[in-house]
Design brief:
- It contains nine helices and eight strands.
- It is α/β, with parallel strands linked by helices.
- It has a six-stranded mixed sheet, sandwiched between helices. The protein has a two-stranded parallel sheet with strand order 4-5.
- Strand 4 (115-116), helix 4 (125-131) and strand 5 form a beta-alpha-beta unit.
- Helix 1 runs antiparallel to helix 2, helix 1 (3-34) crosses helix 4 (125-131) and helix 5 (142-158) packs parallel to helix 7 (196-205).
- The chain starts with a helix and ends with a helix.
Length: 290
């Protein structure tokens, strides 16, 4: 199958999948909006996440159909689809999102990402993110930062109603060599971690979390773009998931903000281990390729 045909096939499946399933969300989202009663909201949220899970199943199908690279995944057995998880991962490409969805769909509750506010205006998919209560963030300073914190808290508070996985790309943006150099990052393969999203999640849901999923994604043949994934040029994928307990020192007392210094120290330690893990995975895959 040529790259052009693969791209056409993936585009068609993705477009039809998105249009049909997001359209089916509209009546459910309207009921949730008009009748904001807890029981109704819980039922609507479950229905919406069921539609989203089917959407991710179909995306996983076209991703596997056009890409024949090897998937090396570990650490996903024994997870609870009815639990609450705080999830963090390194971030290199938009492909990371479909990789995470394919790996974790139906193994844990649906991943809810902290999303740039501008993306709510993306046709069709922006409505789906709104209906699913994704936290929309402006990621600016001053009053915007305070508004982000309040919006994040409200979104995370809603997640208590239905099992949810709160997902944070802790670096805040996709890794590139230019960003890495500009930051003067102390890590070889990662940008500096930012803990605002994790802090909000701990503040709102800390006592409810089943555990913390520390995820590492590596692309041994180089980081693919979303176009690469749709054209069958994605290559191999390595995913390592580590289920960790959340240390008590980062859990805030009820009604108080998360202790930022403790959260930052915890994440810095995790990031150092992740940086070493990425280096080891890349050296192992390089050895296999040679």
């Amino acid at each position: 199958m040529s790259a052009a045909f693969k791209f056409l096939f993936a585009t068609l499946v993705l477009a039809v999948n998105t249009l049909v399933l997001v359209t089916s969300m509209i009546p459910v989202a309207l009921v949730k909006l008009v009748l904001p009663v807890q029981g109704v909201r819980r039922a609507c949220d479950r229905a919406l996440m069921g539609i989203a899970a089917l959407w991710m199943d179909i995306n996983g199908f076209w991703l596997g159909a056009v890409n024949r690279g090897h998937w090396d995944v570990s650490g996903v057995d024994g997870l609870d689809p009815r639990g609450w998880y705080l999830v963090a991962s390194n971030h290199q490409s938009w492909v990371d999102i479909v990789v995470l969805q394919r790996v974790f769909n139906r193994r844990i509750p649906m991943l809810k990402f902290f999303t740039k506010k501008e993306l709510i205006y993306v046709p069709v998919i922006g409505f789906a993110w709104w209906a699913l209560d994704f936290p929309f963030m402006q990621r600016k300073g001053g009053a915007s930062a305070r508004a982000d914190l309040e919006a994040g808290r409200k979104a995370c508070a809603k997640f208590r109603l239905v099992p949810t996985s709160v997902m944070s790309f802790v670096e805040g943006t996709r890794f590139t060599p230019a960003k890495h150099a500009k930051q003067n990052s102390p890590f070889r393969h990662l940008l500096k971690p930012k803990v605002g999203g994790i802090g909000m999640a701990l503040e709102s849901l800390g006592d409810a979390f089943t555990g913390f999923l520390d995820v590492t994604i590596v692309y041994p043949q180089g980081t693919p773009t979303f176009t690469d994934a749709m054209a069958g040029r994605m290559g191999d994928v390595v995913v390592r998931a580590h289920l960790r307990s959340i240390p008590p020192q980062v859990l805030p007392p009820a009604g108080e903000p998360a202790p930022r210094a403790a959260v930052q120290a915890w994440v810095n330690e995790l990031w150092q281990a992740k940086d070493e893990e990425i280096g080891l995975l890349l050296s192992n895959t390089d050895g296999l390729a040679n």
